Amino acid sequence: MRTCLILVGLALGTPLSGARAAAPEARFGGFGEYRVDASVPCLTDEQRAEIQARISAGIRTLRAENLLPPPAAQAVSFDWPVRLKAGLGDPGFHGISNFVDHDPGYPNAVQDYMCGTRTYDLSNGYNHQGTDVFSWPFGWYKMDHDQVEVVAAAPGTIVSKSDGNYDRDCSFTGSDWNAVYVVHADGSEAWYGHLKSGSLTPKAAGQTVSRGEYLGIVGSSGNSTGPHLHFEVYDAANHLIDPYAGPCNSSTPTTWWTSERPYYDSAINAIMTHDAPPVFPACPGEETLNQRTAFTPGETAYFAVYYRDQLSGQVSNYAVYDAANALVTRWSHSSPSPFYAASYWYWSLTLPTNRSNGWWRFQVTYLGTTYQRPFYVGDPTAVAGLPAAAGIRFIGGTPNPVASGASFEFELLARERVRLVLLDGEGRRVTTLSNGWFGSGAHHVSWDGRDAGGRAVAPGLYFARLEADRRAAITRKVVVAR
Ligand SMILES: [Zn+2]
């Protein structure tokens, strides 16, 4: 599958006319969408045949070695096969570009499980055979920073995998993908394709994986021009299964999902503040986020919201509040287009100079859910002289309690040197998680649950302490429970 980002930047750069004392007003800045360009298959017929032969051989070998039990009559249910890396806070991170094509005709004869057209086929007879789940927004950034993980949708045994194939090939050259193939207890199999090179689980064929276990990072290996997971399923008789239940899906009468997501899974994936519009370069360039958390009064900030499955008529109500929780400005918007698999909209606002400084918030309410993004308005040069809480926001670690690992998130108003240490209940240093310079904005530091000597720490109470030069430290409780 090819995907590309179509940018329709409508930078309405009209200067504000009239009195400058008018109430601050957000100005529409631009819009973009992630459009599916379905001109090549995720897999060619030759590649699919080669994979099927490899899986069959793998199954035979493992059965002969008693590493794979014979199929049992046992229903398989799938959990969602992707997740955001622990500790990241965005409310969403994916979209669906293509479902399985149930119309055997071609080309331009497509029908997804709901009798819609969210799938594709090609003139050579290819009908899309999987579910494509793409990372959104900033798919390349997410891939380069290992932010979206592919996990086992159901427990099973790895029967084959391939790694080391190039993952930034933006022209269709028929290159192979990186993938993990898992057989479940009932003999059905799931293919997890397009994984990032070098990111695959170290487990080999014959080893089992549990539900939700890490398999790799969402990547763009093989025939792909944007990071996404191609999830393809077969039953024990090797019939292609579309795991969604719907009137135009004859491959299964009931859903294979533990909790099936709606056909239009409309939601906001991210809400952000920027100092310039985000930049989406051509494949395979990593996006430039231009994300910023701290602003000076009088500066222009960009407020952006990133949607999946946005439909016309769905109203978004946006608002900006100052540090005293007083409304600065609000506006609303609804998409004029029937459907976007992924879209983003942004507005610019010159931050007024006569408001309460400190942590402001950008807020959007969409389909009954309110999403918030805090940002700082004040004098960044004064950061070093401020108490720690004014210059640094230490969100702490997630998950908490910690079982095997955690990710700590903090935000800085300006570039500075930061040390993150883990202390035990008596205040003794257990390990140093990070020590170095960080720019303004949000940062994540992961911890593998081990002390400085590499040993897993004992269950109990710990403290994560974030220290910045010349200022008081901020401490957060960490509970380790194994
Ligand atoms: Zn696909």
Automatic annotation (TrEMBL):
Alphabetical list of Gene3D superfamilies matching this protein: 2.60.40.4070, Glucose Permease (Domain IIA)
InterPro entries referenced in this protein's UniProt entry, alphabetically: Cell_wall_metabolism_enzyme, Dup_hybrid_motif, FlgD/Vpr_Ig-like, M23ase_b-sheet_dom
Entry protein name: Peptidase M23 domain-containing protein
Signal peptide annotation: 1-21
Record has Signal as a keyword: yes
Annotated SUPFAM superfamilies: Duplicated hybrid motif
MF annotations from Gene Ontology: metalloendopeptidase activity
Keywords: Signal
Key word Signal present: yes
Location of the M23ase beta-sheet core domain: 148-238
FlgD/Vpr Ig-like domain mapped to chain residues: 416-469
A Pfam family of this chain: Peptidase_M23
